[in-house]
Amino acid sequence: MAGKTKVVLTDYVWESVDMERRILGDGVNLVPLQTKKPEEFIAEAADCVALLNTYAGPITADVMAKMPQCKIIARYGIGVDTIDLEAATKAGIIVTNNPTYCIDEVAEHTMALLLSAARKITFYDRQVRAGKWAVPPGKPIQRVSGSTIGLVGYGNIARQVAVRAAAFGMKVLFADPFIKQGQFNTPGDKVELEQLLADSDFVSLHPPLTPQTRQLMNDAAFAKMKKNAVLVNCSRGPVIDTDALVRALDAGKIAGCALDTVDPEPLPDPHPLRGRENVIINPHAAWYSEQAMKGLQAGAPGEVQRVLSGQWPINVVNPAVRGNNRAGL
After folding, report:
1. Residue 67 belongs to domain spanning
2. What's the rounded Cα separation, in Å, for the pair 319 and 122?
3. What is the separation of C-alpha 69 from the centre of its chain, rounded to a whole number of angstroms?
C-alpha cells in the first residue's frame, strides 16, 4: 500500500492478526506470512521497516543485509537464539523480545511436570486406561517434601519455580554464573553446577540457549546426577544432548525425565525417547494460557509501534545498538 510503513510478520501460531493491526495503527501496512526459513520471507521483507518474528529463522547477517530499511526485529517470545545479535548491532537493527508474558505459566508447568514425574501420575493414568487398577507397578515413589530441586539458571521463571518448590517443602539450589547469592528475595542457595547435579533429586533447566549452554546436559553431566534423579526441561530443547539423555536412561544413570521442549522439535516418531514409562513429553506447551496468549501477541507489535513513533522500546536484547541504529534512537 503506497505511503504506508511496511511491517512483515514472518510467522504466527494464532488465529488472526487483528491485535497486531490494532496496535500498529492505520499508517502501517502489515504483511502477515507463514514461513519457516528466511528464503521464504526475504523477498517480501526486503523493503520492510520492521520485522515481527515468531519461529522463522535463523536471521543472520546475510538476511539482515537484504533488509536495508529494517529498524527493528521484534520477537514474540523470550529466546533470541535464532537471531544473530552481534550482526544486528553492527547493522544498527534493534532486537527486542517478550520476557514476561508467560513467567507464571512456565513456572506452573515446570512444577506440574515435576509432580507428575514424582508421583507417577501419567504412568498410573496409562495403567488405568489399559484396564489395570493397582499401586505396586508404580513403586518406588518418594515424598516430594524434603527433596532437593536444582535450578540450572536463576532467571525470572526459575525464581518463580523456586517459590513454588519451597511451598512444597523442597530445598532449593541454583547454579547461575550471572546471579549472586541473596540478589533476589526468593528461595535458593547458590552452588556450582557440579554440586547441584550431585545433590539434586530434581534438576530443572532454565538457562537461555547460548553457545555455552547448548548441550549443557551431556554424558558428563548425567554421570554426576543421582540415579534416582529426574530431569525437567521447560527451557530449550538443545540445552540437552538428546543422544546422551537416551544413553543415560538406558544405563539407569537417572530415574527419568519430564520434557516440555526437546531437540529436535517436533520429536520424530518413532524416537528412542517415545514410549518409555519414565519419560513425560509435552509439545512445547508450557508457555500457553489464554492470558499468556494475549500478552504474547501484544508484545512484539507494541515494541515495533514504539520504535516507529520515535520511542526507545522496553525489552531490548542488544542495548549496545542504542545511539547507533537505523531508527535514530
Report:
1. 5-101+290-321
2. 44
3. 29
